[in-house]
Design the sequence.
């Protein structure tokens, strides 16, 4: 074939990439090393390989947050409870407090062997944003702990997602001013993951069950430049109190979040008023919701003073648990409502929404986010180093290393990786075939043109 004839055929077969909004997002290939395939987010849904993934799990924090105990760092505790998780038939747990200075190898492997993924809260009571005085608490010391938690858990293939914050914004309208800082943490975590060459574990926020600012907060977390937006949005919902889809108001919430643009799931649910039969599970797994929601986490596994738990644990190191009435009911609801087949009517594209405007319930009056503190920015290339764990000095009153101004939109964009651990963990970080295509074509044109010249 003559060189130019070959190029004509090649040009006809190749379509040059064009920018389009919304853009289709493609699932990452699962890790080759995984005992469980890694879960990714694509469009408005989660994926386990090419199979739609629904969160079907429990919130897990024996002793409550005040105990400052990491259940994944103690094999006696986690192995005791993993046996119960298998009996329930769940596929996900959420852990609110973890120790980023401890090893989690044994518990995370045992969870993976049981087919269970983990959602990790990157904050803990010592290292978190102060909702009513957020600026001083957004500092280098705080972000070092956050990034150390990412370092510790991102190496496990069954780490499903990270929460950048939990219920920081609540019913106190003044707390809405903290949204800028929570969104900055989300930006920083996503940038850190990319800068370190890690696999793209999704990062999002867990919102309180507060109706007056839920939609403003949801829109805020999904507006602005790509680097500032969350990978998903989760919220707590206790409005289903042994009622039904319409009486609980879930039908309206589905309408509100239709065409939202990113994946959503419930980070807590399970109202205890009027008893609990967990009818929510039937709704979450039905076509009334799967086109918008990706499941949810029932609150909670361990029975605490608030009365929500389904398993009574006599003491922290107890070898046996006592199943409460809700245990078998929840197991039954899971069994009777399996994850649906197919794609659930998901939307294959993602898109940003408009940022909310200031009003009586939403006090954020700027779309600009605080700039990452200079000391924390260095961690992008240097790494976080050893985590402070649960016995550190805390960060809210560190008094130094705070943000010195607002960031330019797009400042969190990462164009080059730091030091990838390995090729599997760098999935999604290298140039895509379409990004490389113009250079390939240019090389072919030069080579074939030279060949044609030599033949003349």
Sequence:
């Amino acid at each position: 074939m003559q060189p130019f004839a070959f190029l004509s055929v090649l040009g006809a077969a190749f379509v040059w990439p064009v920018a389009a909004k919304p853009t289709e997002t493609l699932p990452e290939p699962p890790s080759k090393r995984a005992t469980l395939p890694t879960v990714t987010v694509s469009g408005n849904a989660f994926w386990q390989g090419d199979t739609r993934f629904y969160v079907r799990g429990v919130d897990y924090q024996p002793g409550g947050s005040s105990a400052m105990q990491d259940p994944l760092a103690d094999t006696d505790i986690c192995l005791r409870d993993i046996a119960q998780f298998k009996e329930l038939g769940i596929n996900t747990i959420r852990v609110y407090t973890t120790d980023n200075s401890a090893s989690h190898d044994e518990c995370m492997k045992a969870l993976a062997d049981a087919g269970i993924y983990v959602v990790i809260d990157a904050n803990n009571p010592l290292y978190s944003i102060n909702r009513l005085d957020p600026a001083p608490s957004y500092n280098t010391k705080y972000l070092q702990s956050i990034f150390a938690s990412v370092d510790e858990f991102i190496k496990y293939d069954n780490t499903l997602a990270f929460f950048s914050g939990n219920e920081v914004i609540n019913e106190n309208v003044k707390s809405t001013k903290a949204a800028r800082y929570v969104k900055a943490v989300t930006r920083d975590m996503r940038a850190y993951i990319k800068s370190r060459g890690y696999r793209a574990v999704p990062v999002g926020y867990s919102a309180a069950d507060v109706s007056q600012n839920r939609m403003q907060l949801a829109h805020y977390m999904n507006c602005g430049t790509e680097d500032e937006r969350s990978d998903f949005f989760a919220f707590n919902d206790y409005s289903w109190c042994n009622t039904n889809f319409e009486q609980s108001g879930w039908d309206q919430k589905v309408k509100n979040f239709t065409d939202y643009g990113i994946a959503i799931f419930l980070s807590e649910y399970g109202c205890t008023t009027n008893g609990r039969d967990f009818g929510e599970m039937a709704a979450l797994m039905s076509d009334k919701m799967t086109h918008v929601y990706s499941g949810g986490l029932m609150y909670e596994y361990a029975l605490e003073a608030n009365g929500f738990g389904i398993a009574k644990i006599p003491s922290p190191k107890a070898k046996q648990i006592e199943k409460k009435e809700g245990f078998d009911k929840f197991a039954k609801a899971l069994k009777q409502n399996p994850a649906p087949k197919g794609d659930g009517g998901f939307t294959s594209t993602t898109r940003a929404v408009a940022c909310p405007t200031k009003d009586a319930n939403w006090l954020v009056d700027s779309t600009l986010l605080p700039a990452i503190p200079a000391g924390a920015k260095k961690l992008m290339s240097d790494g976080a180093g050893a985590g402070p764990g649960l016995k550190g000095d805390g960060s809210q009153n560190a008094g130094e290393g705070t943000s010195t101004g607002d960031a330019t939109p797009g400042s969190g964009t990462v164009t080059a990786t730091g030091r990838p651990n390995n090729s599997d963990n760098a999935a999604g970080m290298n140039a895509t075939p379409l990004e490389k295509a113009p250079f390939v074509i240019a090389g072919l044109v030069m080579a074939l043109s030279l060949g044609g010249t030599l033949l003349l």
About this structure: The chain has two domains: 3-19+433-455, 29-350. Residues 1-34, 418-456 have pLDDT under 50 and may be disordered. The two ends are 15 Å apart (CA to CA). The longest strand covers residues 159-166.
